[in-house]
Design a protein that fits this description.
Elements (H helix, E strand, L loop, with lengths): L8 H16 L7 H15 L2 H10 L3 H19 L4 H10 L2 H9 L8 H33 L21 H20 L7 H21 L2 H20 L5 H20 L7 H10 L9 H18 L10 H12 L2 H6 L6 H30 L3 H16 L6 H4 L1 H15 L12
């Protein structure tokens, strides 16, 4: 282990905290708050603000720094004109990682060795894989006790922390991200990973898609269907996968997807249910998830339009939505006090046009940077993040607000320090 000195004190302690976050974030959203606080305390104790900001500026990371930080600052501003102060305070406390990530992580650019950065990614992949295995084992035990195959699917497929278990949508996002990381790490022939780690990463290539299917998150499955062919093309163009194998995998995926969408397999096929729900015109007081989202999105648009340009304030979003639910007779949705279930609408309703623009800048940066620098990993993460935020208000819960800024900025740092031969997308020429 490298000896800790004044010069490497901040990056080495920060790395230890980040490693803890990478291991724990897939199965526990409660440890990230103390980790974020410790990162901020370390930043203050290091007392080298000018040097850290100079690192950010010289590394050309000012845009992601301010784009990420703005989401935290806007939540503070939104709290100032909210009537529900308690909810507003809870909101910006939930978004603490949008302060800790840019302030504490971006000054580490070039100061954490490439080997340690890779270890953070490996640790995350293995932790997500272990979570998937644990979920399956617990579901299998429940199946043996009850004889019900539903124990393997959707909410029954995620178990850690009981009633506060990670929602399938979030866990599916972790799995898709970890799967792409596994592919990238295995494709890189110059990366000398231990044989045991390589075996575990290969196992993750099978376990993680299986977990996504079991979780039955509609967004998770649809996004994986989009990501999978992109990864196949990438692997073929990098000559890590023979063309015939790529074509065979693509055909197999299409056939399996078609059979699954037809409802002929699977005890709980939520994609088929979604198609049936959308055909049924039952909007008066919807009880199923798909139609609930439709009416919630419609209501959110109405509230947003009535509160432009600065929104209702972060603390009053749900209260204002509930008033509309009650007026429209949506008693089931009112009882559940549903938020916008779309982060773009959530920011538009709560913070108006400035909030939506800040969110789009934050999400757009990894996508644009990934395309501009031909960085496959960064572009795919941007796609996964943008797609998930369409159907969930992921930044309103710790499972999303902890992981998303942390992962975004870590991948940006990784892209900046790794050798150029690892980064590019396949050349089209």
């Amino acid at each position: 282990m490298e000896k800790i000195t004044r010069d490497n004190f901040y990056p080495q302690i920060s790395y230890s905290l980040l490693l803890m976050a990478a291991v724990t974030v897939p199965w526990s959203r409660f440890l990230m708050l103390p980790i974020a606080i410790l990162l901020l305390v370390l930043f203050v104790a290091d007392n080298r603000y000018r040097i850290h900001f100079q690192t950010i500026r010289e590394s050309k990371l000012l845009f992601p720094f301010f784009a990420t930080l703005s989401l935290f600052l806007l939540s503070l501003i939104g709290a100032a004109y909210s009537d529900n102060v308690a909810k507003a305070i809870s909101d910006w406390e939930c978004k603490l990682c949008f302060l800790a990530a840019p302030v504490c992580l971006l000054p580490l650019c070039g100061k954490i060795p490439l080997k340690q950065m890779r270890m953070l990614l490996v640790a995350f992949v293995l932790s997500v894989t272990a979570t998937a295995i644990g979920n399956f084992v617990i579901s299998a035990v429940s199946f043996v006790r009850t004889g019900e195959t539903t124990q393997f699917f959707y909410m029954h497929a995620t178990h850690f922390f009981g009633e506060k278990a990670t929602h399938p949508s979030y866990l599916s996002m972790y799995c898709a991200t970890a799967w792409i990381l596994s592919v990238i790490l295995l494709i890189n022939r110059k990366l000398s990973l231990p044989k045991t780690i390589r075996i575990l990463l290969v196992s993750a290539l099978v376990i993680l898609p299986a977990e996504i299917i079991l979780l039955q998150s509609k967004a998770g499955i649809l996004l994986f269907v989009l990501v999978f062919p992109c990864v196949l093309v990438y692997a073929v163009r990098k000559k890590a996968l023979p063309l015939w194998a790529g074509i065979a995998a693509a055909v197999g995926c299409i056939v399996l997807g078609g059979v699954g969408a037809s409802g002929k397999i699977g005890t709980m096929n939520r994609l088929t249910d979604m198609q049936q729900q959308l055909r049924a015109d039952e909007m008066e007081n919807p009880y199923n998830g798909t139609l609930q989202r439709v009416v919630v999105w419609q209501t959110s648009c109405e509230v947003a339009g009535d509160n432009l340009p600065f929104g209702t304030g972060t603390g009053d979003v749900t209260d204002e939505l509930c008033r509309r639910y009650e007026a429209k007779g949506y008693t089931y949705i009112l009882d559940k006090r549903l938020n916008c279930h779309n982060q773009y609408l959530q920011h538009l309703v709560g913070l108006g046009i400035p909030g939506l623009l800040a969110l789009l800048l934050f999400i757009g940066y990894p996508i644009v940077e990934g395309i501009r620098k031909k960085d496959f990993l960064l572009a795919m993460w941007g796609l996964i993040m943008a797609g998930n935020l369409l159907v969930e208000s992921m930044l309103e819960t710790r499972a999303g607000s902890n992981f998303i800024p942390l992962n975004t900025l870590l991948l940006i740092l990784y892209q900046r320090i790794r050798p150029s031969e690892e980064a590019p997308l396949p050349n089209n020429r």
